[in-house]
Amino acid sequence: MVAQLSHLIYRTEQVRSGEQAAAAAIGLSMAQLMQAAAQACLQAIQDHCAAPARVAIVCGPGNNGGDGWVLARLAQAAGYQVTVYAVPPTTKLAQQAQAAWQAEGGRWQSSIDSLHGYQILVDAVLGSGLSRPLTDFYLAAVQAINAAANTAAANTAWVLSVDVPTGLNSDTGQPQPIAVTAAHTVTMVAIKAGLVTGKAKDYVGQLSLAELGIGAAFSKQPAMAELVQPELAQRWLAKRKPSSHKGDHGHLVLIAGGPGMSGAAILAGRAALRSGAGKVTLVTHPHTLAIIAQAQPELMVHGTDEKGLIPWLEQANAIVIGPGLGRDAWAQQQLQQLLDWHLKLIGPLPPVVADADALNLLAQLQQGETPPHLRQWVLTPHPAEAGRLLRSVMSTRFADENMTAVVEADRYEALTQLVTNFNAEVLLKGAGTLIAGPAHQIERILVCERGSPALATAGSGDVLSGLLGALLAQHRQPSAAALHELVATAVWVHAVAGENAAQAGERGTIASDIVNELRALVNP
Q1: How far lies 200's CA from each of 59, 96, 180, 254, 449, in Å?
Q2: Which of 166, 377, 449, 504 sits in a 20 to 30 Å window from 328, CA-based?
Q3: Is 355 labeled as ligand-binding?
Q4: Which pLDDT band holds residue 394 (cuts at 50, 70, 90)?
Q5: How distant, in Å, are the alpha carbons of 160, 297, 326 from that of 292?
Q6: How far apart are CA 147 and CA 159, in angstroms?
């Protein structure tokens, strides 16, 4: 990816309108952009497989298909054996590109029976902007491409998608209802929002950006999101002063571990310790106190008593509530005490991370009521928890029964609604984790593209909570902007820890393996 736009994310309509203005500003025609797009795709093909490999290019009727027609001509000139499958072009640029292909003796077929036998398949069917289910030629094209790519034969085809895998909504990342499963997607001008989160991760494959020579001009318009960069870790995990002591590195209070769920509390506590918190106090149910204290001697473990949480909360630089908390009367009492104490405070507040059962209890407590103004809170839901929180405030846009599906259908919209409802920083977990804060404080959504399926294991979220709490405790009373970046830093470290833990294999990686990777990553 190129420097100007490599980390910026835009809505599809922004790209469509902005590319024409950017091209005009520097004197490039749309035909020249099409030529540049095809050249970028040819480079991707050449990087994968040398000529004279057999290449099938499937072209749709619009300018995405036009990119395919130009690519066919360039690939054939480069020595590849090219066959084109297409519907008649309908845009002027695509018609010109088809005519140029035919003028050089190129032929094309209008129906697809099978794409087996090709080494490379190019998907230039629909590109960005699709918002309705696939039908007719388009559905057949996607099915044929996927069938040839997913065959059990040793010579499985390699699939390149031009701009966006056909069938994928380029704003939400949702298939309509299926999409091309690409090995590589070359997206044009700028990264589209739907390519980096949710189900899109199953379809996009390796993502590369071709800014087509207009990146500098295009990047002047504001992006709606940006990718988390490794430099954040360098900024927020600076080397410590030789004279520092544990009091300099923050006191985290962790409220966790209901009866029978000591494991989640232990994982969160260990993650916090390995992430550099100077002190970690774990306030837990009296029945689990001895188990946790024996498992991790570095934790200061206390059972709740008639004094409640207040003595511990008053010492905290940051608070985490939720890992293994449960949903019984004891758990409800802990959350209510924290809410009552935190909402009444005036002035600087210790940040609060709410995870797991704390989120479910928050949704339950707020059912049908106006949600609280959760200043300096970080909500960390996975899609099912996000759905419960959305339903709890009776949002008419999220009244569907299957709330998890509603959230995943448009993760950006669900994230924005959660931030608006609770006025809190929200971290929406999943492939391509999303991070946002109140609009008056935070300019852009942050997206973490790092991670591994190894993170989809019990306890992984508890590790993230402990890690995040530790980073917040070490940076006392962060501003809204600093809080936003610290959350992103924790997400990035957790994601890379998952990747590193899975070096021996994603399947079978457990949460303790992720904890073991944290120490190296928080000392960049």
Answers
A1: 21, 32, 10, 35, 11
A2: 377
A3: no
A4: low
A5: 51, 8, 16
A6: 11
The candidate with the shortest Cα–Cα distance to 70, out of 188, 214, 243, 242, is: 188
DSSP result, 33-55: HHHHHHHHHHHHHHHH--TT-EE
Token pair of 94 as six digits:
């695509």
Please tell me whether 264 is known to bind a ligand. Answer: yes
198: left (phi over 0), alpha (psi -120 to 50) or beta: left
Is 213 labelled as part of a ligand binding site? no
430: Cβ contacts below 8 Å, ≥ 6 apart:
197, 198, 382, 383, 408, 411
DSSP collapsed to 3 states, 420-432? HHHCCEEEECCCC
| Structure tokens belonging to residue 31 | 């035909």
Say how far apart CA 263 and CA 305 lie, in whole Å. Answer: 21
Q: Which residue has tokens 């001008």? A: 189
> Is residue 68 annotated as involved in ligand binding?
no
171 is in an annotated binding site: no
In tens, the pLDDT along 464-504 reads 999 999 999 999 889 999 999 999 999 999 999 999 999 99
Measuring CA to CA, which residue among 75, 209, 53 is closest to residue 119? 53
Could you give the C-alpha distances from 287 to 260, 261, 267, 284, 426, in angstroms and in order? 9, 10, 18, 8, 32
Tell whether 169 is in a known binding site. Answer: no
Q: Known binder of ligand: residue 123?
A: yes
Confirm or deny that 65 is annotated as ligand binding.
yes
Annotated ligand binding at 66? The verdict is yes
**Residue 132 assigned ligand-binding role:** yes
Chain segment 310-365, per-residue pLDDT in tens? 999 999 999 999 999 999 999 999 999 999 999 898 888 899 999 999 999 999 88
